[in-house]
C-alpha cells in the first residue's frame, strides 16, 4: 500500500461503551474519508489486565497498557483518546497535552468548572505548540445537526426567538436499577444534567451560534437509594451483596430555562425518567423566517419550516439528511440509506484528524467544553438557590 | 315534537371568534347528545347594533340586545355565555350569577387574581342557590385529553415524574401584524401567558389531577411596537391611520418550570412566535408505568406508552380517539372519522347542560379558574423578580 | 331577519349514518358560508313512522314522510337528498329529477352500471331544465384533497407517474360481526369495492384530472358466513335468532392496478380487514416535479414534496390545511384549529347550493358517478376473469 | 492475540457500492459478535488493476486479483463474496461453489430463472459437501424486519389477510440521468423489478413465512432514451461523448398484485420514479389479531398494532428496535442509539459465518433466491400478456 500520509498512533484510555464506539470510528474512518493523516489503532489502556487484553483483541488495538501514564509515555502514541468517566478527564487530558499528545476527550469535559478551567488553559498552552484538543460532543456530527447549524448560519431562520431542547431517556425508571457509577457524584460529577444535559447545551449553542447568558433551574432525584451495583459492590470490601443499597448522589432530572446571547428564550430538560423515550435528544429552534426540529431517535431526519413560503404551502418538511450534498453523508451510502449512532463518532474522528493534519484547531475546543461546564454549574447553583436567575460567565 | 325536557334559554355575550364557535356548539349539541334539558338560542348581545343583528341572523340567535345588562335581565335567558375579552368577564359573570343565571365563562377566567377571587366567591354563593358556573377550558373536552385524564386516574401511568406542556402558535411573528386587543394589557390581562398558557396550565392540572405548587419563569416581548389595528385606530379619535404604531403591553412568550403536588417536575411554554406551529397545544406526561403524549394539531390522536409491556414490544402507540367507547366520541361518527376544534365546545356545552339538568356542579369550576389565575400571576411575579421560585397559594 | 335570498326546502330520504351527517351539514352550512340561497330543513322521510319521527326531532327536520314518493311530491321540497343504501338510489334520484327537484345522491351512485347510466341520462335531461344533480363523493371536499387537486392543476407535480390509493378499514375483522346490509349484494351492490373503493377511484380521478383507462384486479371474501344481523333477522320470518348465519355476498377486499389517461401507473386497495386502520383513505401521487400524500386519518394535513428545490433542503412537508387561503378552511377557524369528518359534508352542501343558486352544474356530476361505476364494474370483471386487463369505456 | 478460532479468508469480487458496504461488514463484524470463525479480508478482485488496488488499500483488503477466476483458485480464500452486477452472478457463484468455496451472492441472485436454477442446483450439490451458500437479501437483517418475522411466527398477527409492500426510490426521475448499467437489460436483467422489487418479494415471503402463488402485473418505462453514461460511453468505441443517447431496456417501475399461500391478498410496487421517496422499502401486514408496518427510511422502527387489546387503547405503536432483546440490536449500542444501512450487512455476514462455523445451511438459500426469481419472471410474463394471472411454480 503506497500511502505517503503520516501515520498517527492512537492511544485510547477506557474500553467501555465509549471505548467501543470510538474503536469503531478509528477502525472505519479511513475507508470512507480521504484523510491527510493515517490513524493507527496503537494502544488501549485499562486497569484490569485481563479485560483490557480481551477488549484490545476484540476491538482491534495492537497493544495494551494497564496504566494510562504508560500509554501517554509511548512514542507510538500521537493521539490520546480519553474515554473514562469524568472524574479522571482533567488529569489524563492535561498530562497528555503536556506530553505533546493531541487529545480527544469525552464529555462532559470535566466534573467541575475548576477542572474544566485547568483543561482549557492546558489546551491553550498546547495549541501554541501545535498540539490539538477537542471535546467529544458527538451530536454536532449528526449530519442533520450539522445541517441545522448550516441553515442557521445562512440566515434561513432569521432572528432566533426560541430554543426548546430535551434529552429524554428512561433507563433508570425502575427503582431496582443498580447504583452504577453514573449515579455517583464523585465519579460522574452530576447525573442527567452533566451526562445528557451537557449535550443539549452544547448542541443549542453550536446550532444557534450563540451562548446562554443565564439560567434558572430545578433538579430532582426521584429515587434516592438503589441496590449497589455488582461492580461497585466489588470495590467495597465486606459488601453484603445484592441486599445492600447505596445513595444516589446525582440528579435524576434537570429542567431549566434561559436566554441566549441573541435574545432568544430557551428551555431545556434532561432526564432519565421519561418512560418510553430511549434516546430522544431533541431540539427545536424558531426564528422569524423559519424553524428547525430534530430528534435523535430519528437521526437521519431534519424538519425544516420555511416561513418565507406562502402560508398555503408552508409546513415542516422532513429532510432525509442522506444526500451527497449533506454534511458527512456523501462519504457513505446513496440517499435514503441512513446512518446510525456510531457514525457521529466516525465524523468526529475525521474532523479531528483533518484538524491535526492541516494544523488547525478543531471544534468543539476545550474552551467550548468549559463554556458548557459553566452552564451546568449555573443550573446547579440556581437549583440550589431558589431557582434564582444565574448569569453564565463568558 | 313531544319534548318534555325543560327548555333553557341561552344568552350569549360577544359574537367574535368565541361567539361563533359557541354558537355552533349550542346549535349542534342536541342532535348528538341526549340531554336532560333543551337549550334554546335565545339572545345575543353586542355593543354594535348593526353587527350584532347580522351576527344573530347568521349564527341563529332569536333575539338581540345591545347591552349585556339587558340580556341578563331577560326572563327568557337562563344561561349566560360570556364570550367577551377578559376585561369584562368578572363584571358580567358576577352580575349574571347574582341574577340567578347559570354562567359559562370563557378563559382566562379573569385578567387578575382579584377578579378571579371575586368570581369564585360569587360562584360559590350562587351554587348554594343551585346556580351553576363553569370556565370554558375547552381542551379538557378534546376526547384524547379526556382519555388521557382517564388513563392517569386509572393509574396506568403510575407515579408521575414529568409534565412537559407547550402551546405554540405563530400568528404574530410578522412585526407588521397589528396591535389587536389581545396585545393590550388593559383588555387581555396578559399575552401568550393568559391566552394560551392558561390552557396548558389547566390541562396539566386536569390530566394529572394535581396542582402546581410553585413556578420559576421568564416572559418576553420580542416586538414592542406594532401598527395600530384598524379597529383600535377607530377608537382613538384623530388616529393618523396606518402610519400610527402603538405599544405592545403584554408578553409575546412565557417559559416556566415548576413542581406538581405529587412531586413531578413540570415545564411550560406559551408563545405566539413558534414559526410554523399553528395551534400546537401539546402535553407529555411521563410516569413510572407509562407515558402519554398529545398535540392538538393532531387532535384525534393520543399517544400512549405502556411501560408494563416487555421492552421488546413496547413503544408509543397512536390511539385514534374515535372509538365508541372513548369519551364523547361515540356520539358522533364511526371509528376513524375524526372530530374538529369546534366539537370541544359541543362537549363543553353538553357537560354544562347535564350538570344543570342533574343539579350538580360542573368542572372546571370558577375555583379551578382561580387556581389557574394564581399560576399565571405567580409566573409574572417570578419573571419580574429574577425568576425566583414563587409558590402558588392553594 | 332580513333575508332576501330564495329559501330552498330540503327533503332528505334516510336518517341513518349518512342522514345524520347530512343533517349536520344542512344545519351548519348557513352559519359559515355566504350562500346565494337559504336551505330549509323541511322534510325527512323513512319507512318506520316512529323512528323517522324521532330522528326528525333530534336532527331538526320540520316534517316527516313515510314514503319517499310523498316527499318528492311536496311543494316545500326543492332539493332531494338521497341517503339510502345503493339499491334505491336510481329509483329515487330519477323520480326526483323528473319531478324537477335538485338531487344530491350518496355514493356509490348506483349498484350497477345500468342503473348509473339511467341516472346519468336523467341528470342530463334534468340539467337542460335547470335541475341540478350531484354525487356525494364527500372526500373531494376535504380541504387537503381540494388543495391536492389545486396543486396538480397548477402543474406543481409535473407529469404524473404514480398514483397509490388505499382505503383501509377494519370493522369486520371479527368473524362474529353480523351480516349487515353492507355485506349483502342485493342491497349494497358490492362490498369494500363499492363502498370505499369508489371513494378512492373518484378521488384519484378528481385529484389527477385524469381517468382510469383500464384495470386488472383481485377481490376476496375472507369470511363467507356471518351471524345474521338482528335487523336482518327481523326481516326474515322464522329466524332462529342469534344462532342463524347468512352468506356474505360481497367482497371483503379488492386490490387492483391500472393506468391513467396521462400515462401514470396506479394501484388501489379497498379493504375492511386492515386491522388497526380505521378510516385510512390514502392517496399518494408522484410526478416529475413533486409528490403529494394524504391520509384521512390525519385529514387536516397534506404532505407535499417539491422536487424543484435543491435536494439538500427538499422533503415531504406537512401542510396543515387550515389557513385562510386554503379551500373551504377560511370559513371556519384560525390556522391550526382543525376540521372533522362532518365538515366535508358542509362543504359539499355549500358547493351544491352555490351551483343551484348560480345556475351552474355542480361536480361530481352523475356522469362522474357513472365513470366511477364503470371502473368498479371493470374491477369485478377482471377479478372474475383471471385478472385480465379490462379497459374502462369512457 | 490468543484466538483459537479457525480463520477463514474472504475473497470479494467487485468493489463498487456493494463491495464498499460488504467491506465495512467484514471489517466490523468481529468487534461486535462472538463468531465461531474469524474472517480475514484476504483478496479483492476487479478488472481494473489500478482501481482495484486503490479500492483494496482504502477498504482494507490484503491482496488483489484482476480475474475472479484467480481469486477462486487461491488457497487463502475460503469464502467468495459476489458483489458484481447480476449478469456474472451465476458463472462466478457456480465456479466458486464447485471449487469448494462458501458463497455469499448479491441479489437479485441472477438475471434469469435458468441461471437461478443452475445456481440453486450447484448450491444443493455443494451443500452435500458442506459448502455453504447464501443470497444477500440484506433487508432480512434489519432488526425491525427480523422482529416482524418473529411476531408473525409467534402468531401475534393471527391469520394474515393483507400484505402491502412498496420499494420507492426517485433517483432516475430526471430524464438527463445517464444510462447506467442498472438501466440495461443485458447487465441488470430487469430494472426496478429485479433491483428493488426482488427485495420486497423476498421480505414479504420471509416475514409472512408464505410464498406467492401467483401474480398479475404491469411494468412501465417512463423514459425510453437517456444520455449515455460516461462509463458506458467509454466502452463504446467512437462514442460522440455527452451528445449520445442510448435506449433504456428495463422497466422504470412495476406494480403487481398477488396471493400468498396462506390466503392473503398482496400488492407490490417497485419504482425509481416516486419523487421524494429515497429508499422507502415498506411493508405492511394485516392479520386477524394484529398488524405490522415498516419503512426502511425509518429503519430502527417497527409499528405494531395489537388487535387483542381493548379498542379504546389499541393503536399502532412505534417500537424502537434497539433493545438488548431485539434481533441483532443487543450487540451494538444502548436502546435508542440507532443502527444504519450498513449494519444489515454486518448481520448478514455474522449469520453466514455462524452457519459456516456451525455447519448449517444459512438462509436465504439459493433455493430462496430462485423462488424470488420465479416471481420476478411471472410478473414480467403477466405484464407482457395482458396482466393475466400467472401462477408461480413452487
Automatic annotation (TrEMBL), chains A, B, C, D:
Gene3D superfamilies: Dihydrodipicolinate Reductase, domain 2 (3.30.360.10), NAD(P)-binding Rossmann-like Domain (3.40.50.720). This is Gfo/Idh/MocA family protein. It comes from the Bacteria. Pfam families: GFO_IDH_MocA, GFO_IDH_MocA_C3. Residues 9-127 form the Gfo/Idh/MocA-like oxidoreductase N-terminal domain. SUPFAM superfamilies: Glyceraldehyde-3-phosphate dehydrogenase-like, C-terminal domain, NAD(P)-binding Rossmann-fold domains. Coiled coil: none annotated. Residues 146-292 form the GFO/IDH/MocA-like oxidoreductase domain. Keywords: Oxidoreductase.
Amino acid at each position: 500500500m503506497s500511502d505517503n500520509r503520516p501515520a498517527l498512533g492512537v492511544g485510547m484510555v477506557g474500553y467501555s461503551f465509549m471505548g467501543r464506539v470510538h474503536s469503531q470510528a478509528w477502525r472505519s474512518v479511513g475507508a470512507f474519508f480521504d484523510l491527510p493523516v493515517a490513524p493507527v489503532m496503537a494502544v488501549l489502556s485499562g486497569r484490569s489486565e485481563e479485560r483490557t487484553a480481551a477488549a484490545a483483541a476484540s476491538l482491534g488495538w495492537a497493544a495494551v497498557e494497564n496504566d494510562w501514564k504508560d500509554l501517554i509515555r509511548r512514542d507510538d502514541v500521537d493521539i490520546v483518546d480519553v474515554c473514562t468517566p469524568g472524574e479522571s478527564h482533567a488529569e489524563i487530558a492535561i498530562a497528555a497535552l503536556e506530553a505533546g499528545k493531541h487529545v480527544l476527550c469525552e464529555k462532559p469535559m470535566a466534573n467541575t468548572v475548576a477542572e474544566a478551567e485547568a483543561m482549557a488553559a492546558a489546551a491553550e498552552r498546547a495549541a501554541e505548540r501545535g498540539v490539538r484538543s477537542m471535546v467529544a460532543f458527538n451530536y454536532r456530527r449528526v449530519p442533520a445537526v450539522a445541517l441545522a447549524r448550516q441553515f442557521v448560519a445562512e440566515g434561513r431562520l432569521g432572528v432566533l426567538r426560541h430554543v426548546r431542547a430535551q434529552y429524554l431517556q428512561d433507563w433508570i425508571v425502575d427503582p431496582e436499577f443498580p447504583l452504577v457509577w453514573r449515579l455517583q457524584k464523585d465519579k460522574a460529577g452530576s447525573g442527567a444534567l452533566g451526562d445528557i444535559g451537557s449535550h443539549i447545551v452544547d448542541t443549542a449553542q453550536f446550532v444557534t451560534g450563540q451562548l446562554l447568558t443565564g439560567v434558572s433551574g430545578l433538579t430532582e432525584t426521584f429515587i434516592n437509594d438503589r441496590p449497589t451495583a455488582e461492580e461497585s459492590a466489588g470495590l467495597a470490601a465486606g459488601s453484603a451483596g445484592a441486599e445492600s443499597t447505596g445513595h444516589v448522589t446525582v440528579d435524576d432530572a434537570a429542567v431549566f430555562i434561559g436566554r441566549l446571547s441573541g435574545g432568544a428564550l430557551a428551555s431545556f430538560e434532561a432526564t432519565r425518567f421519561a418512560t418510553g423515550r430511549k434516546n430522544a435528544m431533541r431540539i427545536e429552534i424558531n426564528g422569524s423566517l423559519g424553524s428547525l426540529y430534530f430528534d435523535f431517535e430519528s437521526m437521519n431526519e431534519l424538519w425544516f419550516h420555511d416561513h418565507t413560503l406562502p402560508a398555503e404551502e408552508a409546513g415542516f418538511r422532513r429532510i432525509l439528511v442522506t444526500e451527497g450534498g449533506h454534511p458527512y453523508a456523501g462519504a457513505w451510502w446513496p440517499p435514503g440509506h441512513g446512518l446510525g449512532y456510531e457514525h457521529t463518532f466516525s465524523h468526529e474522528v475525521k474532523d479531528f484528524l483533518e484538524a491535526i493534519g492541516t494544523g488547525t484547531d478543531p471544534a468543539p475546543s476545550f474552551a467550548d467544553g468549559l463554556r458548557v461546564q459553566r452552564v451546568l454549574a449555573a443550573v446547579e447553583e440556581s437549583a440550589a438557590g431558589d431557582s434564582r436567575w444565574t448569569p453564565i460567565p463568558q
